[in-house]
Amino acid sequence: MKCDRCTKDAIFFRPYSGERLCIKHFLKSVEEKVFAELRKYVKSGKKVGLAVSGGKDSLTLAYMTSKFLQKRRIRNVEVKAIIIDEGIKNFRDKAVKIAQQQLSEWNIEYTVFRFNEEYTITIDQIREKVGSRMTCTYCGIFRRRAFETLSKKLKLDLILTGHNADDISQTILLNIIQGNLKHLARTEEFPGTIPKKKPLRKVLEREIALYAVLRGIRFYSYPCPYSREALRNEIRNFLFSLEEKHPGTTYSILRIGEKIKEKIYYQIEVKKCKKCGFPTTRDICKFCELMSSLRGI
Ligand code: SF4
Ligand code: ZN
């Protein structure tokens, strides 16, 4: 089996397009997709944040962003990685270590935001207080606030995240199954919050994994021990087997998601949290509500 783009042996077959590619052209094909996205967001004079968790997607994004900047010689772009350490022993500590090593190797500056230091409590401790059912709610809301706080402190213009095509399609299906039209619809960006973009949005998870391995990117590959996303896991497996049997399904779902966004628009009424002043749709934002609930326990 020969590569479609040269005379070398192919190592990869892309079922949804029928392409056969050698190592060099497989890597190039993934980079073409991601660089096309990066070109839309990473412009001269911008200060770009990279959300890095230590997993394969975010570290691949960090690697590609640095490669993109070197290749295109875009001047005046500052890239700053943001690592959030929620305080989950034997999980995030290990992932953070790998992230720090890789980012240093690629000369990407980073800042670590530690729940322990900033909120004086870790997710391990929160879990003991609130129980396993609520842990991810606290973790997600606290992490989102961490991104906002750091973006302001570092004066970032936008944050790039490592969500891939599978992640986004899973979220679309999840919202359909849960009947959550609001989350499927287009909403204006919350004024005062940092714009977030997903340069890996057109690449399948399995291709990112292969890219990372072929490029020798080290990453932490174990899931969080507190993950309770049972429904999302079922959707992930369902989508994976659909993609195997019917290549291109993931992209069809992505396109449907985009079409829904084009058609339905929700206007959000944005207020200021009475406690912290952050933009919210409520009187007291979810972050402040959860923070005070912890103090009350
Ligand atoms: Fe946090 Fe839950 Fe994700 Fe673990 S699975 S990192 S606890 S949101
Ligand atoms: Zn608040």
Distinctive features:
alpha/beta; two-stranded antiparallel ribbon; 51% helix; 297 residues; 12 helices; five-stranded parallel sheet; binds zinc ion; binds iron/sulfur cluster
Report on the structure:
The protein has 297 residues and is α/β, with parallel strands linked by helices. Helices cover 51% and strands 13% of the residues. It contains twelve helices and eleven strands. A five-stranded parallel beta sheet has the order 5-4-3-6-8, with helices on both faces. Strand 10 and strand 11 form a beta hairpin. The termini are far apart.
**Beta-strand content bin:** 5-15%
The profile of the biggest β sheet is: 5 strands, parallel
> What's the alpha carbon Rg, rounded to whole Å?
20 Å
- Any ligands, ions or cofactors bound here, and which? iron/sulfur cluster, zinc ion
Strand order in the sheet with the most strands: 5-4-3-6-8
- State the order of secondary-structure elements, H for helix, E for strand: EEHEHEHEHHHEHHEEHHHEEEH
Distance between the termini: 63 Å
Kindly state the number of beta strands: 11
